[in-house]
Amino acid sequence: MTPTRRGFLAGTAALSLAESMQSQPSPTGVPTRALGKTGVQVSILGLGGHHQARPKEESESVRIVHAAIDNGITFMDNAWDYHDGRAEEVMGNALAMNGYRKKAFLMTKVCDRDYAGAMKHLEESLRRLRTDVIDLWQFHECNYYNDPEMIQEKGGLRAALEAKKQGKVRFIGFTGHKHPRIHRKMLAVNFPWDACQMPNNVMDYRFESFRHEVMPECAKRGVGVIGMKGCGGEGNMLTDGVVTVEECYRYFLSQPVSTQVVGLANMEDLQRALTIVRSFKPMSTSDLQTLTTRLKDVAGDGRYEHFKTTQRYDAAHHRKQHGFS
Question: How far apart are the C-alpha atoms of 29 and 176, rounded to whole Å?
Fold first, then answer.
């Protein structure tokens, strides 16, 4: 029987997804995966930069960053606007010590959409992070339907290409947590995206799903997927007792992501994450069906993913950017 084009494309997409899930072992016990078509391997867990400005003492944040890298979590997440720049400063100070910058893959995010603003944010991020180059620079919170047009028309993409040409940025991506359709619009922009960041948690499987609507498209394009909000962002699914931390980790690490950014605000959180990831085994089809069926009622109405349905979790900088209070 001659295969249909639809069947061929579906098979190709399935193969791409399978390839994007392949992990490589490392001496630390934290596996790595390919970041799309960049040729770079990244740790399957990334350290969330927002949480690194939360400890009262900077020395504790530095200790967490160093311990994460020493134990194989080398993907560092951050953003220009986290804690009004404090998050980048704290991480920059930690990476500047004892050669840790050379051991890390550093990602941060730019908030302005226009050329001048984006270039200004770049220079400020470089200064705060105490580095000459950012490994991955991503447009932050593409949560509004006209963000793809703004980034093109106002010069943000031109700034990104110029920064890459200048050697200040290695790779370029975008992030967002609102609706899969916005991510698909961003992917459709005529631009060679290297990566994009999106929600990846067990509730997403049945509600406005990035797993179903965006990840397969990224796999076809060779765009690295960075997961976030693995425990729901708000944490309510844990405090309500509908799912465990271990179930959250096993689900999101079983998806076709290059890395999953997790918020680790203290050494206890870091040690628990390391224990889970070092013993991680991908979910079987049966395991996935059992878990998602059990959570069907609480996942399907979005009660644990308010970041998709409200502006409550949109950064103030981006609300103001679009004329909202």
Answer: 30
- Cα 264 versus chain centre, distance: 14
Among 46, 26, 23, which Cα is nearest to 135's? 46
How do residues 14-44 score in pLDDT, each as one tens digit? 445 556 578 998 999 999 999 999 999 999 9
Count the neighbouring beta carbons within 10 Å of the beta carbon of residue 186.
21
- CA–CA gap between residue 254 and residue 295 (Å, rounded): 17
Rg (CA), the chain: 19
Would you say 136 and 172 are in contact if contact means Cβ atoms under 8 Å apart? yes
pLDDT of residue 233: 82
Q: How far apart are the first and last CA of the chain?
A: 59
Q: How many CA atoms lie within 13 A of 81 on its CB side?
A: 15
Q: For residues 107 and 76, is the Cβ–Cβ distance under 8 A? A: yes
Residue-range definition of the domain harbouring residue 232 = 41-309
pLDDT at 3 over 70: no
| Number of structural domains found in the chain | 1
pLDDT at 9: 42
Task: Yes or no: say if 238 and 295 are a contact pair by the CB < 8 Å rule.
Answer: no
In a domain, 16, yes or no: no
Token pair for residue 99? 């050669």
CATH for 105? 3.20.20.100
Contact call for residues 36 and 222 (beta carbons, < 8 A): yes
In a domain, 7, yes or no: no
Is there a domain that residue 125 lies in? yes
| Kind and range of the H or E run holding 260 | strand 259-262
| CA separation for the pair 98, 198 (Å, rounded) | 32
